[in-house]
Each structure stands twice: as structure tokens, then as C-alpha cells.
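Try this one yourself first.
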């Protein structure tokens, strides 16, 4: 790879000038960009890219690959300006990925997951938080179905051992069940759910290149594919999940809840994840989840709500949802308060 000085005027012109790379591809229809390893680019260069992209199309998006909390990173120039409003629109949300895997595999609990998510929400401006790319796999990490089966950390084993790694059938089936829990979290959170091709089909694999197999056309794992499709369809169709207000929190060490609602339409959605290998009976009262910018005011549940995975319909009791969750189960209930 060439080593360049991004702030050299001729290079800036080559990339962001009137006849530069950004303009060339914008004319071809590619108006949004992902910056690989944004940490290696000067803040001023990122600002130059953003200004040019927004001049070409105000709706364009500048996404950065940043592995940590974007709000408190430091470089040679001092604190990075990723979330300041004049650099990145969004970043790959690896802190969510890591916290989710740790929670679902038992290396942390729901309170720890909540701490990570609430901290990001507190640190990021609202537009940035709601634009984060929420991923559970990528080309740079172990596929979710494998990570959630209890695979070793990719940095702790050699490439040779990664090539040979194969979880037991019991552990892999547990990984597939946890994958649906991960997808339920992913589609319920504010942000942009990003599906790495094949996760929805139950593809497995350690880190690159073992996570890059061809898509299993016609041989998808239906136990994964069907609920995954139902969750993604709910995210597509439900206004509360797409742009609603959000409350979230741990109901116990084993159970995490997210409640979304859209006052102007009355749509609401309640997501519950039980990561335990035993059933859990919980009560969700959105009024008890008060942390965060949407913690004040009314957060109404629908009188009846239907789970998008099982199609089960249940009633609520005086603004409370009482549910017994089977082991390793996610439920995403949707409804309308003005129905």
C-alpha cells in the first residue's frame, strides 16, 4: 500500500477536487463511503472528505471503521473529532458486537451489556448513536454463529488452529440459538442493523479467510433463516423499531429488554432476550426503564402484542408485560396503542 501525506494539496485535489475521485464515483452513483481504519487518517482529511461528499449530495453518508468508543479516542493531533458533527456520520459499532457476544456466551451479564450500551448512548450525539452500524459479524472477526458457540478469541489461536477449529454439535446448536438472540438485539436497538452475508443462513467460520465461504444457496439453515427473516421484516415494517424512542435495561442478570415506541403512530415494540439455559419469568414495565434521553414521560404498551417470531399474541396488564421465556429465547412483541 502506498504511504501518502493526505494533507498534501495535490493529493487533496486528487481525492476531493472538482474532478477528483469522490466526484468521479458520485457521477457513477456511488455517493457514500466507508473509511477503512479511520484512525490512520488525519481529522482534517476526514473533514475535507465530508465537506466534499455533502456538497455532492447532502444525503451521502461517511462511515468510519473505528473499533472503540468513537467519542474519546486520541491521536497525534489530540482528541479525535469523529462525533463532533463535521467528520463521520456513523461508525461500525464494534463495542456493541463485543458486549453482545460476551453477554450471550456468559462472560458478562445483562447489567454489563446495559452499561456498554448506555455509555455509548451517553457519549454519542443522538444523530450519531442512531446512525451507528450495528453488526454482529464482519470480514474482520469470527462469524457470529461460531463466536456464539464458544469459539476461542481469534487473537489467541494460530491461523492453522483456526482452520481446524470445529465446535461440538451441541455447542454449535447452542451458537445457532444464540444467533437469533443476537439478531433480536440488533434489530431492536437504535442504529442501522448490518447483516454480514450468510449470517442469516447460519454460516460459520473463524476469522479471515475462514469467514468468507460462499453463500449456501438452497442449503440455508432453516432454524436460523426463518426467525432471522421475521426479525428483519419487523425492523423493515415497524415504525417504532425504525425511528421510535427507546428505553432499555437489564431485567435480571440473564434477561435484557428494549422497548421502542413511536408516539405519532402509536406503534410499539418490546424485545426480551433470555440468554440463560433455563426459563425465566419476567415483568416488563417500560416506566421502570428510565435511563437515557427517552426516560421521561409516558411509554405506553399496547393492550395486546404479537411476537414476530412465534406469532403468539399476549395481553398486557395495566401497562405491564408478563412473560415466561424458554431457555435461550428471544421475543419481539409488536402492537399499536391506538388500535
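Now uncover the answer:
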Amino acid at each position: 500500500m502506498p504511504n501518502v501525506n493526505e494533507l498534501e494539496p495535490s493529493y487533496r485535489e486528487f481525492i476531493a477536487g472538482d474532478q477528483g475521485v469522490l466526484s468521479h464515483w458520485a457521477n457513477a452513483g456511488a455517493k457514500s463511503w466507508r473509511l477503512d481504519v479511520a484512525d490512520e487518517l488525519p481529522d482534517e482529511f476526514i473533514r475535507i472528505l465530508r465537506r466534499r461528499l455533502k456538497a455532492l449530495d447532502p444525503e451521502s453518508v461517511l462511515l468510519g471503521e473505528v473499533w472503540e468508543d468513537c467519542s474519546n479516542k486520541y491521536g497525534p493531533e489530540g482528541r479525535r473529532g469523529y462525533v463532533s458533527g463535521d467528520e463521520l456520520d456513523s461508525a461500525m459499532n464494534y463495542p456493541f458486537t463485543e458486549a453482545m457476544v460476551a453477554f450471550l456466551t456468559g462472560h458478562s451479564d445483562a447489567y454489563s451489556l446495559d452499561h456498554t450500551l448506555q455509555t455509548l448512548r451517553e457519549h454519542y450525539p443522538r444523530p450519531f448513536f442512531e446512525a451507528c452500524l450495528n453488526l454482529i459479524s464482519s470480514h474482520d472477526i469470527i462469524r457470529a454463529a461460531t463466536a456464539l458457540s464458544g469459539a476461542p478469541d481469534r487473537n489467541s489461536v494460530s491461523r492453522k488452529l483456526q482452520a481446524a477449529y470445529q465446535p461440538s454439535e451441541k455447542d454449535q446448536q447452542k451458537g445457532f440459538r444464540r444467533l437469533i438472540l443476537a439478531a433480536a438485539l440488533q434489530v431492536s436497538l437504535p442504529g442501522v442493523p448490518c447483516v454480514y452475508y450468510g449470517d442469516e443462513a447460519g454460516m460459520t467460520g473463524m476469522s479471515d479467510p475462514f469467514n468468507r465461504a460462499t453463500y449456501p444457496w438452497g442449503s440455508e439453515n432453516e432454524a436460523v433463516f426463518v426467525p432471522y427473516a421475521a426479525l428483519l421484516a419487523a425492523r423493515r415494517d415497524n415504525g417504532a423499531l425504525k425511528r421510535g424512542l427507546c428505553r432499555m435495561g437489564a431485567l435480571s442478570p440473564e434477561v435484557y429488554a428494549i422497548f421502542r415506541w413511536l408516539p405519532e403512530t402509536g406503534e410499539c415494540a418490546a424485545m426480551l432476550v433470555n440468554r440463560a439455559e433455563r426459563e425465566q419469568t419476567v415483568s416488563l414495565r417500560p416506566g421502570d426503564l428510565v435511563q437515557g434521553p427517552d426516560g421521561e414521560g409516558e411509554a405506553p404498551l399496547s393492550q395486546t402484542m404479537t411476537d414476530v417470531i412465534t406469532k403468539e399474541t399476549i395481553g398486557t396488564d395495566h401497562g405491564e408485560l408478563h412473560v415466561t421465556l424458554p431457555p435461550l429465547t428471544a421475543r419481539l412483541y409488536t402492537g399499536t396503542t391506538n388500535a
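Discussion: The chain has two domains: 9-237, 240-336. The longest strand covers residues 255-262.
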